[in-house]
Structure formats: structure tokens, C-alpha cells
User: Fold these one by one.
Assistant:
Number 1:
Amino acid sequence: MTVEVPATDPSVYASYEAKWASLPDTADAWLARAREVAQLLSQDAAQRDQENKSPRAEIALLKHSGLLKLLGPKKYGGGEQPWSVGYQAIREVAKADGSIGMLLGYHLLWSTTANVVGTPEQIERTHQLIISNNYFVGGAVNPRDSDLKITSDGDYIVFNGAKHFNTGGVVSDLTVLEGVLEGTEGHIFALVETRQPGIEFAHNWHNIGLRLTESGGVKINNIRVPWSDALGWDASTKTPREDTLLIPFATLLLPTIQLVFSNFYLGIAIGALEFASKYTTHGTRAWPFGGDNKESATDEFYILERYGNFFAHLRATEALADRAGEQISALYIKYGSNRSALTAEERGEVAEWVASVKVVTTDVGLRVTSGVFEVTGARATALKVGLDRFWRDIRTHTLHDPVAYKNRELGRFALLHEYPEPSWYT
């Protein structure tokens, strides 16, 4: 049974399909495109957050912009940009709308999953499928839940199970499924068409933040996938190919998505400061009982001090995030065609760069998005202002995996020079 849920109207952005018919051709042009998208989203971001409608219009906007193709090969119509540019694009979009920045980030990860764990043939086929159709990719991969069960049925594998959380699935064209093959400990990723009877969304994402990410539950019932689409597996022997799944390169998927998280945290925090600064400039009143009274709030020492401190910490965090993005990009460029050459030490080193960013963006992001209320004033708490959405968005996702474990991991690295064991969150 089809469930009708309120959704935003894709037609509001229809004119941008023609306006953005050509893809950007340089890194700077791609980031300029991301800023154009952000400017459009910023116009009604607070209203859309409060209405909590399924983001069909916003996904259409991402499609029109070409940002879904940013990392894909040029031969199929992609932008062929490195992950370092992808991370910055996520950040730009998240400045205006944390939910849509998150959806873009997850799409970029899931749409390039085959690059990490797929065979060369699967990589090419997946890119052609996604880019030529301008598909948006969601994912039902939540390691905290029980794994989906996979059984083999001739030339097919069959997925069954449920996830409490999936990201963007309701508005996706393709969904990444992941589970464990019956009788083995082998994990299998596969991309499937979202719109089929065996994928049932719960439509129960009613959380305090990231309200437009469609991150609710999903049931997977007898979804059949050709063995040839089991990423990284040999369809004839029905076993993992050692050159795809059993090497450090295959575990790059985890630090890659952890850095996606940090970049939309950072974008949200920068967006909060920019939003608050406009409010302070035009709406915050000077405090008349301080003994050193000023005519304007923008002349008050404590307001200037807070903005300066927030700005400094965000600028430093941005530099750290860019450095980590360059580190990951370098590994993909160096080892993309020779995946078995990546060492565990190189993988561990980049994981600790990413862990450092996760710790700092969490700490700074939460401090800035809550602290901006101190420099905007009581009236800034009005629902119509919408300043609260920045804190709610960061607070919601920073609980994804406890940052305390990242601090512990970094402590072992700093104190004992131990690299982390690859896991679903490292």
C-alpha cells in the first residue's frame, strides 16, 4: 500500500534545470554552484524545517544543479572532482540547510561505494547507471541494528530484514542495502531500485533536528539482486574477491563517511554564525544596564568578543577539515587503480585525521550553535526566526556515534601510537 505523505513541490525549482544545463568545469565553479544552491535553500529553510515535509523539491534542486554528479567520471557525464571538493560542496549547502547538506553528503558516499568495495566492472556499471540517469542514492545501512539477512537463490541474492534508520530513502531513486550472507560472516553491499514493493518505509522520522532527511525506518522484504551486483563478490564462485574486500582500501568507506558528517556539522555551525550575525546587526538591541552603555549591540564588547572567538574556532576547524579532505583525496587518487597497495598504516593515519576533525567539529559546532543565542538576544528564540534549527541539527547527528570513543581512539594514537582497528565507525 502506498502511503501519501506531505512533500515539497519540485516544480518550484523547475526553471533551474535549463539554467544549470551545463555542469561546472573547475573546482571553484563547482563550489560556486553549491553556493547558488545554498542561497536558494536559505530563503525558506526555517519554514521548511517547521513544516517537516518530505524534501522532494530539494532533491530536484540538487539534481538540476548537477551536484549529485560532482564526483563521477567525466566519461559518463560527471564532474570528476576529488573528495576534497565534494566535502567543501557539502559544507556550502549545509550552511543554508543542514538536512540537504547531509543528504548530499550521504549520496556522494553511497554513489561512490563501488569505488571502494566493487570490482572494476561494477565500478564502471554503477557510475554509468547513476550519472546517466542523474539518480539520487539513499542508504539503509545502520550498523547498530541487526544485519539484513542475505540468502543465495541461484543467480540471485535475497535481502530481508529491517532498519530503524535509513537516510534519504523515501526520496531516492536507488537504495544501498548491506547485509550478511547466510552461513558466512561475509558482508555484501548492493544498490537496488527504491520504488519496488519489497521496500516499505515507516515514514516515522519526527526527530528534533535534520527533519528533512527522511531518516526513518524501513522494512526490506525479499529484495532480489543478481549476484553480479553484489559489490566486490565473484558471481561465479559466490565468494569475496580478495582484491576488493579483504584489504585496507575497502575500509576507507568508514573514514570517508565520517568526514562527510564533520563537514555538514561544520557547514551548519558556519551557517549559524552567519545567520546570527545578520540578526545581531539588524535586530539585537544594546543592553542598557551594563554601566558602559553603547548605542548599538554591534559596539558591545561581549558581543564582539563572542563573535570573534566563534569565528576563530570555526576558521581553524575549517582548515583542519580541509587538511583531512586532502589526505583522503590523496589516497583515492594514489591507490584507486592499485587498491591492494594501500597499507594499514596509511589507512590508520588518515582515520586519525578524520577522528580529529570529528572531535573538533562536534565540540565547536555545539558551542557555536548554542552560543549564538547569547549574542542575538531573547527575541531570537522566536519560532519564526528559526535560529534554533542549527543547534537541533548538529545535536541530532552528533549522537550518531559517541564522540567520546573518538577521543579515546585519538588518545591511544597520541599516547601509544596505536592505529584504530577498522570498524563500522572508524
Note: The beta strands are 137-140, 148-153, 156-163, 174-181, 187-193, 199-201, 218-226, 233-234, 239-240.
Number 2:
Amino acid sequence: MKLIGSLTSPYVRKVRIVMAEKKLDFQLVLEDVWGSDSILKINPLGKVPCLVMEGQDSITGAMFDSRVIVEYVDTLSPVGKLIPDRGRERCEVRTWEALADGIMDAAILARQERHWPHRTDAQRSTAWADRQLGKVHAGLAAMSQGLGEKAWCSGNHFSLADIAVGCALGWLEFRFPDIHWRESHPNLARHMDKLSQRASFAETVPTA
């Protein structure tokens, strides 16, 4: 398998961590979607991550969107089941993932509004960026409340919920050091520190 992505994308990191936890071999192909349109040959939406099956380098052989990819990857190996098969437990894990992805979605929009080079300062909207960051803070509060003093986000073991949360928190540390979520939500800080000790997290820390 070939995973097309970047070292900074939290969505790509989520897939990489799932692949590592499932002990699956894959080739990581780095792609700068802002500097090249070549990704469009594989994903018409021009986004990463994108998983390409062996021998299928076309849109018809590609799988995109991190949620779709991790759903598929979790079925490839019985090692460390990350998504429950059915019922309320499954919905709970996927809701945690949606919350974490939503925080990242909002934070990325805020960052683009602040820093996208093809927009002048006069064209930037502070109100728009602040609105997105409001979603980030609300999401962090919900995340903290949901975790409470539990050992894991969902159920009694490590799951995709924890991976998604860790990727969101890690990306905020990387791109928004001015959001002091560790001080505001110490339980999230403890959880992140525990996750960071796993090899899958330590080996995928985002770098510029």
C-alpha cells in the first residue's frame, strides 16, 4: 500500500498511527498539495491523506478521507482492534473521532485565514478566524468533559478515539502554541503525555 500525505497533516498522522498500531507495512509518499496539483490525479478533491492499493495509481484505485481510510485499515489485521464492530460503542468511538476532526477542521480554517499567502492583510477576517477558534475552544472543553478522569476516551482500552484526540492535540501544540489547552484542561494534558509514550505517536510527531 502507498499512503500519500505530508508530515504536518493531522489527518495523515491519524492514518499513520493506525497503520503502526495495526503493524501494517506501507510506503509513505510525501505530497505538498499547496505547491503541486499532482494529487488531483489520485484524489479529485486535492486532499491528503490518500491510500493507493498496490498496482492501482489512479482515482479508481484510491481511497481518500482519513475516516474512510482508518475504517478500512482496521479490518486488515486482527491486531489491536481500534473501532468496535457495531452498536453504541462503535458510535461513541466515531463521535470522538468526529469531535477531534472537527477541532482540526476549525483550527486549519483559522490558520489559513491568518497565514494563507494569496490573501492580503486587508482581505483577512479576524472575526472569521476568531469564530473558528471559538469552535476549537468549545471542542476542547467538550473533549475534556468527555474524558474526565477516565483512562481512555471510550471504553476501557486504547481505540481510534484516543488516536484522533491525540492527533488534534498534537497539531494544536504544533501550529497554535498560543492556545494553552494544557493549562485549561490538565486531564487532556495527562492523556496526551500518556499517548506520546507510544511508539506510533513518538514516530509521527509533526515537523515543519
Note: The CA atoms of residues 86 and 92 lie 10 Å apart.
Number 3:
Amino acid sequence: MSLDHKPRKSWFKHKPLWILVAFLFFVTFTNSSYFAQKATGSPLLLAHRGMAQTFPMEGITDETCTAEQIYPPEHPYLENTIASMRAAFDAGADVVELDVQPTKDGQFAIFHDWTLGCRTNGKGVTRDFSLAELQKLDIGYKYTADGGKTFPFRGKGIGMMPSLSEVLQAFPDRSLLIHVKSNDPNEGQQLANYLSTLPTERLATLTVYGGDKPIEDLHKILPEMRVMSKATLKSCLIPYMAIGWTGYIPQACEQTQLHIPDQIAPWLWGWPNRFMERMERNQTRVVLVAGSGDFSRGFDSVEDLANVPAGFSGLIWTNRIDRIGPVIHAK
């Protein structure tokens, strides 16, 4: 009798260990990229504000006027202009990001700043002006790379601020990422009402991101549209990081867009291939941004590309499409 019970006692004695081993095997098998379909090809490219002038990222805040500290210009383009977007697409961008500001007369201007004084020869809050008034400004007036000794774009940006309508007409079949720069729910409603006049196939090429309130209101009116905000990111990634090891995909991760900093990405279950498989299966677009994701850091040099996983099939964010586009498309 005693001999018959010894194996059973041994099993019960080591049962917690076997359960742990089985659990670790399950988690590894479910989330390992080795068991996912191996991605091939090159990443897609998202050009931030088109072909833009760039600046040192160190020490900048939300109040920094970046136009006053640009690097010496290497190309003639100003951000958020039709010319800069066309140059970005020509350099290999798959998606161009642009900023919208509502105008006093109910339209949308393509411009980054809440106020006009940093970049232009105007003063005041951008949305307090009509589109016609904004389009008379010189949007390159304040750009300087030498502390104000010279202004290389002064006089070259007059009439260069486009409307959203003009951009959509200029690029009727290209993918665009529209950035709402406020947290005003009325802006989300206004943009949704404008976009709702577009054909379904055109809406499929557009994504909108921005403040929690405008994005929430926009999505109520256009539930089929791909959107992103801090709230939508959290509602997807927090539960995913909690239970994604099981292979379960939270509903908030479906038909959306995720901006994933490359410092955080390795902590996501199944990163990179298994995670990408799951998101693509749920029609969710993944954009990889550089560092911790602060202040729109991008993959802006050839050296930065070493941090992009081999075979990554999503979008990578760049502020220097002129540098990155030719490298990616040469592979």
C-alpha cells in the first residue's frame, strides 16, 4: 500500500511546479513571435506634418516656439502646406499627418499652433480669424536658425496656409492623419459634420486623432471612422497588458489606431509579430514612434531605424521623410 501511494505523493508534492511550467509554456507559445507568421517587407512611413523643418527636441515644452530654433534648412518646405505634403509623398510617405484649426467662418485651416505669433506675421488666436484672413499671412515669417539674425523663409510663406478642403482635393486618394489640436468637443462635432459629407471610400483613407473630448464626439457621429486619443489608447492597451497574454483582444483594440513608443513596445504581449498579427486581424493600425513618445519624436536618422523590429509591418513615425523614405524604399 505504501509503495502504491509514493508516486501519488510525489505528484502532489510537485504539482505547483508543473502548473507553473504549464502556465509558462502556454504564455510563451501564445505570445512568442517565433510562432507567429513571420513578417516580410518594409515598414510603412508616416510623415509628420509633411516635409517639415526640424529642431532640437531637448528641453522643449508645450510653450516652446520651435520656429525660433530650427536647424539650418536642408530643404525649402514648410510644414502643413500642400507643397510639403506632396514632397513627403514623393519621398515615400504612405501617410501624411496634418494639423487642423477651426476658423471663425466655420472652415478648417491647416496650421499647427493655437496662436499666430510664433510662426507668422500675425497675432492672436488662430480660431478667431476667418480662413481668408489666415490665408493672407506669411506662415514662414518667424522661422530662424541663428537666433533671429536671418529669417530664411520670410516672404516665402504668404498665402501658403491651406484649408482642409484644399488638401483633400489635392490628394483625393492618399492616406491622411488629421490632428485635432484642442480638447473642444464642438470641434469634434464640426469636423465630423464636415467629414460626413465625404464618400465612404474616402473616409476609409482618413484617420483622426487628438483630444479625448473632440474625438469622443466625432466618433459618436462617425462610428465607422478610425480614431485615436489618449482615452482610446488607454482603453485598449491597459486591458491588453493585463490579459493579452491569453490571446484575448479587448473590444477597444478593434478598428482603431495605436501610437506605440518603441521604449514601451517590448512590454506588449506578443511584440512584435504576434501583437501585429492580432491588431491587423482586428483592422487596427499600429504606428511606432520613437523613445517614450513625447513631443512627436520620430525615426529621423538611419541610426534610429535600428530600433525598428525586423519585418515590422506597421507605420513608423518620422519627422524627416526626406532622409528615411529613400533608405526604406531602397531595401
Note: The domain at 48-181 is CATH 3.20.20.190 (TIM Barrel).
